[in-house]
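Here is one chain, start to finish.
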Amino acid sequence: MTADQTDEMPEPARSVFRDAVAEFEAGETVAAIVAKDADRLDCLAQAVEYRAEGNAEVEAWIESSLAGLRTDGAKALAEALLRQTPGSWWRHALGVEPRHP
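Its structure:
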């Protein structure tokens, strides 16, 4: 797919993109491992939001996201994400208290 998407790009841009995707997919470098963890954390955050909205079908999605994490930092972020409600982290960072009806 990457080859098709970059086929019309001039060199060296084409090689840069193809090499970056190959590195990510191989998952062997520190950069690739961290990038994959970031991708899984993004998926986890989405699943947690959907669960908070009442979607009970996301548990397998949450479990697979957690199972794929490789770095200690990503695992710690995932644990923190699961202990909070969606949006609470940014409200806290901004010093904004949640509104109560």
